[in-house]
Amino acid sequence: MSGSKAKVRLPPPSLLGRDRELSALSGLIGEVGEQGGCLVVSGEPGVGKSALLRAAVGYGRAAGLQILRSTGVECEAHLPYAGLHQLLRPVRCLEAGLPDGQRRALSSAFGGRVYAGAESPPEHFMIALATLNLLADAAARAPVLMVVDDAQWLDRPTQEALLFTARRIDADPIVMVVGTRTGEGTAFASADLTELDVGGLDDSSARVLLARHASDLSSADRERILKAAQGNALALIELPAALRAAAAVGQDLPPPVLPLTIRLKRAFAARLAGLPQSARDAVLTAAVDSADDLPEILAAASALSGRRISAAMMAPAAEIGLIRFDGLHVSFRHPLVRSAVLQAETPTRLHDAHMAVAGVVADDPQRHAWHRSQAITGPDDEVADELEASSLMSLRRGSATEAIWALKRSAQLTTDSATRGHRLLLAAEHAFGLGRADLVDELLDRAARTRLSRLDLVRMEWLREIFHDGVPGDPARIFQLCEMAGESLEVGDRGLALNLLLGAALRCWWSNPGPTARVMVAASAGQLGGMDHDPRHIAVLGVADPLRHGRVVIERLRGVVLETVSDPGGLWLLGMAAHAVGDPVRAADFLARAESRLRDDGRLGLLSQVLTLQAHDNMELGDWGRARAALEEGRRLAVETGQSIWDTGTLTLTAIMAGLHGDSERALLVASEAEQAANGRRLNDLLCCVQLARGIGLVAAGEYSQAYDALSRIFDPADPAFHPTERFHGVMFLAEAALHAGRSGEGSAVVAALEGDASATNSATLHRQMSYARAVLADERDAEKLFRDALQADLARWPWLLARIELAYGIWLRRHRRATESRQHLRSAQARFDLMGARTWAEQARAELHAAGLRPAPAAAGLGVLSAQELQIARLAAQGLSNREIGARLYLSHRTVGSHLYRIFPKLGISTRTELASWLYGAR
């Protein structure tokens, strides 16, 4: 790995009125030798984004970069990965170097054959990872500049793949420049990427540009154009031609009072009117066709016209700048031209054009069905059936977006109301898979207006539920879900019944609906005979009522052989159940295996949930390095996949982690931020974690009385922060705060009240934390026995708790004038705290050692010297994974992994992977 390179010297800006924008582009491209990056160039249609992107291409060529280009096309937005295929075409020769799974996914996305043994369509994120690695390999030869214009019209899968890539190219010599319309709601719009907002030209520049294209127009016409264009560069160039065309046929076309985008489209349509009919037919066919294939377009145009259309007949359209074409391809000079063509034609002409294209692509069932569906107006069950079938092809190609569109259109063409509703529900299920709550709601509202079968009505209720498991714990709604589960069971759909009960259980978990609702959910699950070992069934019992059913759940979890479970969804549910009933060791094991499977499958939506819960359990156990890495990635993925409740969850855990590391100020700040996000929805689980974070942060700051007040809330059933089992994570902190605040009596009363829960459940979290609390709050005659009992437990997987007990016992021994005995415990506690990065408690141990007459060892270099992502990479490298394998697991390019390792080795004072393994295992 080489060091950074010098900046590239680029020519000075040379675009009218765009010095600021060009400076930003040249700065980004000029630094490609030092770092990669992405710039989103946004603005209204026609404002000049494309000209800036062309300037970026010029800069890239001057710098010797590889140029990859793609332009979104409105009518191709339903074709999965069409934009990505265009972009990557020049570098697809490097696909052979990709790992097999990524190569297969990319090939399938681009219409390649489905490989033998493939059990499911390629996941979006696997395709995105293949894209990232392909670009990284290309950049190893020469730096890469990707220029993407009209991103708002790219198909959604391409947008997501490019966004995935844009977030991961900082360490590679790759620059991405994306042009997109303001307010179009692309994947880039809500991303945390650098944005360059392009406004209209200033008056002086606008007048100069207009003079170049309208010198023959009157002063009044020029002023009218200036007023209408409002600095829009494309309008300044095109409106003069529109006025000339109108004048030539004696028409008076004053700009109507409409949005600027409409005016521009009408300007382009005015230029279309003067074309010969043959050229107009060809242009219309090109506009409705989803491909740019010239022979195909000519064949369809001939069918539309009823006579042979040749390429020469398209020349008039090219001469006036509407299209460009060569021997193979046709393209529009600007996507607005395509829009203008479609708006200018009558519905009958549009239908005829689609039917002509459908006839030409009859050997492509998917495109044939799509164009036929656009060629009809009334119901047509045959076409509707074809579209539903084509949705399955879309799913095999990895495009749920296209499948949703096909099912929606299929529903429109369906005569039978129940079938129409069923197709809308199918579309809604796919929309749920994409994380599109808004689209799910829209489709469900439409389905609700059909005559659904009873089972589809129940299915609709489940679909309404799955996006709202964090709403207040309304017992009536939980009872309703249980009743619907019973109805599903009566008609034999046990899977739907379990899904409904799982939704009810999640309502019980996030909120506090009361004991009756919890009992009802568990009782309903009990009616599903023969499903006791289904992960969903176990999760329902554990999540809905962990105190009453904790023993049963743990017994079932003990009967699961981890290595025999391959379904990541099942592993996730088992891990969730283990966490809910307070078995963090087993939860961490299930979740770690689920994480591995989900990474292999590229299912990042569920992966974000797994990582978040994994972080929680690893914090409890003391594997803070792994927890920190999981938390950082989990939050990033929750944001990327639009899961707000899990994003808030990672925020609460971030606050807890800050407190554990001794950063009390950040713990309190982030806790307040998380509380604002959770409070409006009365999410007891998250509010409990917020108070836990506050308490830990205040303990770390030495504010023990305030810490006790914060923590005592989570043990009060009347408080919104109360949660039946999440409170168990705060028992030892409450005891510590009570001890140091002089409120041991209050703390002992809380601990005594928990004894009933401890006898009812075998929650390891509760029993381990109670062992600490009993000892530190005990009177003089019982304390030592309780400390020794606590240390006798199997704490091999609980280093954090072990260190806490050792510290508390060491302090007790020293204060009872048994300094020599105390030193062993204090020294062990200090070493553990140092390695975990528990600064506050490490300093306490160090101070106690000094008071015990022993010079404490200096702070050891622990896992905290590495960032969360560096720690993930270090762990995987120590296990023997190659850079490519690590990249595949963490969704990074292998070259980014190499760059991280280049920085990791000096931090740890090592130079080989063998030393890395020794260091990590030694630290543990």
What does this structure look like?
With 924 residues, this protein is mainly α. Among the domains are: 19-197, 3-Layer(aba) Sandwich (Rossmann fold); 203-265, no CATH class; 455-544, no CATH class; 795-860; 865-923, Arc Repressor Mutant, subunit A, CATH 1.10.10. Helix content is 65%, strand content 4%. The chain has 45 helices and seven strands. The strands form two sheets. It has a five-stranded parallel β-sheet, with helices on both faces. Strands 6-7 form a two-stranded antiparallel ribbon. Helix 6 (156-166) links the parallel strand 3 and strand 4 (174-181). Helix 8 crosses helix 9 (233-248). Residues 1-6, 113-120 and 251-261 have low confidence and may be disordered.
CATH topology of the domain at 19-197: Rossmann fold
The count of helical stretches stands at: 45
Main sheet properties: 5 strands, parallel
Shape: globular
- Helix content range: 55-70%
Q: How much β-strand is present in the residues?
A: under 5%
Query: What is the total tally of β strands?
Result: 7
Rg over alpha carbons: 32 Å
Tell me the name of the CATH homologous superfamily of the domain at 19-197.
P-loop containing nucleotide triphosphate hydrolases
Q: What is the CATH-assigned architecture of the domain at 19-197?
A: 3-Layer(aba) Sandwich
Structural class: mainly alpha
Q: Within the largest sheet, what's the order of strands?
A: 2-3-4-1-5
Compute the average pLDDT.
Answer: 85
The poorly predicted ranges are 1-6, 113-120, 251-261
Termini distance?
A: 29 Å
What is the CATH domain class of the domain at 19-197? Alpha Beta
